[in-house]
Amino acid sequence: MKEILRNQNDTLCMIGTWAWGNGPNGGKIVFGNHYNEQQLRETFESAYNAGFTVWDTAEVYGMGSSERFLGSLIEGKDISISTKHFPYRYYRKGENREALKASLERLGISSADIYWLHSPRNIEQNMKELALLQKEGLIERIGLSNGNLAQIRRAQITLGEYGTYLDAVQNHYSLLTLEREDKILRYCQKNGITFYGYMILEQGALSGHYDADHRFPSMSLRAASFKKSKFKRIQPLIDYIRELAAKYEVDSSRIPAAWAVYKGVYPILGLTKPSHAESLLDGFNISLTTFEVSQLEKLALKSGVRCKGIWE
Hints:
Blueprint: E1 14-16, H1 27-31, H2 37-49, E2 54-56, H3 65-74, E3 80-85, H4 95-107, E4 112-117, H5 123-135, E5 139-145, H6 149-161, E6 168-172, H7 178-190, E7 194-198, H8 221-225, H9 228-248, H10 254-263, E8 266-270, H11 274-283, H12 290-303
Parallel strand pairs: 1-2, 1-8, 2-3, 3-4, 4-5, 5-6, 6-7, 7-8
């Protein structure tokens, strides 16, 4: 089994592919995008050639289409794969094995470097199954996504009973989720659990590319939930992000990512254009000061805007 981190850029971030899926729960519906396969293939090659070889997907991203498309790109390449199973509301024996087998088939691989329980349902039964799959060599590391502190502790206890441990947590983490997630982040750091943060840019709300006058695509879920009034409330934060981007001579989307790195978070960042990989590297060459981090968080909290996905 490959190690999840293998070169310098692997230690910087994980590349997310939620926007790569099509159909239900895919990029067009969630993000309002219209990317074609050729553009995404070029994006993958650009990122891979830049040294980003840790990629994140899930069975529900486009209901399997993200995994299938990513699988068509990774053959013969030294890639680490993170994927997830969204459990049933009521536990079904063997569901994790069935889901993992289907994911591995779509991806064209024999094992997953990280396999996540995508929602903290029926933690004891599902973690037991993941522990057994790990013993069989089908999973290298076990993770829990979207769990609260009590659920994370329960996963730890359950896995410990089966001779293994919770390696990673993947949660929604941004300047607009601070109050909810910082306690979990500190717990993970204290207990040796790697914390992966997704939606660090809030799907573009914190990238500096959107504001009250330049809003999300009208046919996306985020457009429905992030009203113009919210953009007005976070405008001082966006202005400061743009100010820091000008200071460090980077794309404004790199500032929230640099903030996450400062906090000790392992970011999951989506790419949809070949040029994004280069700007991604630029962002990891900057180090925000303690004062700048404090100002970002102060402006975020002052806005009163809090983000939460419908799945959380």
